[in-house]
Amino acid sequence: MAALKRSLILVLLLVVAAGMVFPMAWMLIVSLRENPEQFGTFWQVVQAPTTWMNYADAWRSDNFLIYFANSALVALVVTAGNVVFCLWTGYAFARRRFQGSTLLFATVLGVLMVPQQVIMIPLYRLMAQLGWINTYWALIVPWLVTPFGIFLVRQYLQGMPSDMEDAARIDGAGEWYILFRIVMPLARPVLTVLAIYTFLSNWNSFLFPFLFTNDEAHRTLPVGLAFYLGKQSIDWGHLMAGASISAIPILVLFAVFQKRIIEGLTAGALKE
Questions:
Q1: Structural domains in the chain, sorted by start
Q2: What CA–CA distance (Å, rounded) separates 74 from 141?
Q3: Which residues, in sequence order, are CB contacts of 269 under 8 Å at separation 6+?
Q4: Is 174 left (phi over 0), alpha (psi -120 to 50) or beta?
Q5: For the chain, which terminus, N or C, has the lower number of CB atoms within 10 Å?
């Protein structure tokens, strides 16, 4: 009976894994076919000759490198900002009791429940009034700190003992020294998870970069790829080639930091 149960679980996991891998495999197959829209069935696409021209064309296109560089710049700066500012704010909520702190943290939690579509118009008007439309400021500044990051860091630090911090204060250490030399190294697992989550979210972000940019010089990669969608037809080959290239940083990031991701996600479960 136990063997049958394990077999059923294994089959279920394989089905789920296949469902997750298939979209990426299909994207790769279509990206390696010349004019894949001409084929009428799945097997015709699979059996068609392989070509790398779609990748060469996408990479050599006039603005692809600009889109790629913009996405990298925005994602890296926003990630660094979230690690620093969410650490500061989460540390204040976890270790300090000040007037209105409970209400202020409740406000942060309330922002988590606000859909992005609700803030589109107010945020666009604010960016327009500041003169930040078609600038990197609009793509970076509003996202330098997020309520999710504050909540994540605060919850992690609350479960971490403060003995080392108290000992450092007795020895005369200042708050900045304690924050960056004691708390930050101890919070590395949760900061790694926050950094990866923030990078992926901003690398794949489409809605606000699409709203805040009208010129090609500031478009990010997801917005640029959207222009492969024509009114009459879709250039599937080049679209999938560009999407495959844009997925490379994500795959590399997960492959390099896979152990850190698992440690960060399980850190809270392993605490006694």
A1: 62-227 (1.10.3720.10)
A2: 10
A3: none
A4: beta
A5: C
- DSSP designation for 142: G
- Report the DSSP beta bridge partners of residue 229: 234
Tell me: the pLDDT tens digits for 133-164? Answer: 999 999 999 999 999 999 999 988 888 888 88
Q: Which residue has the tokens 């107010």?
A: 122
Q: What is the number of alpha carbons within 13 Å of residue 254 lying toward its C-beta? A: 6
d(CA 167, CA 157) in angstroms, rounded, equals: 17
Residue 78 — pLDDT band, cuts 50, 70, 90?
very high
Q: Where are the alpha helices (DSSP H) in the chain?
A: 2-31, 42-47, 53-60, 64-95, 101-112, 120-130, 136-140, 147-158, 163-170, 175-178, 184-186, 188-203, 207-212, 221-226, 236-270
Q: Is the pLDDT of residue 60 over 70?
A: yes
Q: Is 199 exposed, middle or buried (0-12, 13-18, 19+ CB in 10 A)?
A: buried
Residue given tokens 């080639």 in the structure block? 241
